[in-house]
Each structure stands twice: as structure tokens, then as C-alpha cells.
From TrEMBL:
Protein name in UniProt: Myb/SANT-like DNA-binding domain-containing protein
InterPro entries according to UniProt: ASIL1/2-like (IPR044823), Myb_DNA-bind_4 (IPR044822)
Lineage: Eukaryota, Metazoa, Ecdysozoa, Arthropoda, Hexapoda
Taxonomic superkingdom: Eukaryota
Pfam families, alphabetized: Myb_DNA-bind_4
Domain Myb/SANT-like DNA-binding positions: 79-160
Length: 163
């Protein structure tokens, strides 16, 4: 909704600039229905005060960039776990697992996330924790399956690396 409103408001500004008018009241057929919503009020004020599209977009891009840099562990990252990222995660987990004895679980995952970012993998601490939990769960499933007599032996690429 915000992006649509921003685009509509940018079109309004271009319309006014092309007409050479500084009329703060746009034609009613070009006004956004959502203009009174609080989430869009900042954009509306900027357009009414005749800022350029570049300034509006720049302000919004800067604030969005700041939000992304402060991304919390609960936000979703679209990067996928590749083989090398998983191997690095397992390696870092083994290296930092001493922190678990001290009860610093969150600090450990933040440290692992920081180390992964140094290697150009953009995963949050909670994403690393969730992935490691999934890997350990899969490891236990395979080990339990292989321990039962009569079952065919399952293989897994990370079986030897995790243990």
C-alpha cells in the first residue's frame, strides 16, 4: 500500500512540475484514497511542500536503508543456505559451542552471524540458530533410522560433518 501511494504521489508531483503549477491541491481524480492514512502522511506533506521526486525518493531510500541495517533477528532474509554456508555454520557452531556452557545462547548466535557476515553470508543470529536446529534434527532422525535393525541405511552429506 505504501509503495503504491508513494508512486501515485510521485506521479502527482511530476504532473505539477510538467504543468508549471505549484498548486498544492491535486485534481480529485489523481488523489490517492489512502492519503489520510498516517503511514503516508509524511510523503503527502513532502509533495504538498513541492519537494522534487529525487528528494522524496532519497529520503525514503535512506530511511529504508537504515531500517535494513538495523534488521532484527525476527525479520526474514531471502538468502538461501548453500552447501558452503552450511559447512561454515557447522564449523562456527563447533568453534563457538563453548559459549553454550556459559548460558550465552543469543550472544553465541550473534557472534556466529557476525562471522558469517565477514564471509559474505547475510544470515541473522536466529536464522543461524534455526538452521542449526534443523540440521541437528535431521541428524537425529537419520541416526535413529540407521540404528533400527532391518532398515536400509540412510546417507546424508552432513552426517560425518555434524558429529
Amino acid at each position: 500500500i505504501f509503495a503504491t501511494t508513494l508512486l501515485q504521489n510521485a506521479k502527482l508531483l511530476l504532473y505539477y512540475n510538467s504543468k508549471g503549477t505549484h498548486n498544492p491541491i491535486p485534481p480529485t481524480n489523481m488523489m490517492s484514497n489512502d492519503i489520510s492514512k498516517p503511514s503516508c502522511s509524511n510523503v503527502t506533506r513532502k509533495i504538498v511542500s513541492n519537494d522534487t521526486v529525487d528528494n522524496i525518493l532519497h529520503d525514503n531510500i535512506i530511511s529504508d536503508t537504515e531500517d535494513i541495517s538495523d534488521m532484527s533477528d525476527t525479520e526474514v532474509n531471502k538468502e538461501r543456505w548453500g552447501h558452503s554456508a552450511i559447512l561454515l555454520l557447522i564449523s562456527l557452531y563447533k568453534e563457538k559451542s563453548y559459549m553454550l556452557e556459559k548460558g550465552n545462547h543469543k550472544k553465541m548466535w550473534i557472534e556466529i552471524s557476525r562471522c558469517m557476515k565477514e564471509k559474505k553470508y547475510k544470515f541473522t543470529g536466529s536464522q543461524c540458530s534455526n538452521k542449526m536446529d534443523a540440521l541437528k534434527r535431521r541428524y537425529r532422525q537419520i541416526m535413529d533410522h540407521n540404528a533400527q535393525s532391518g532398515n536400509d541405511r540412510k546417507e546424508w552429506i552432513y552426517l560425518d560433518v555434524i558429529c
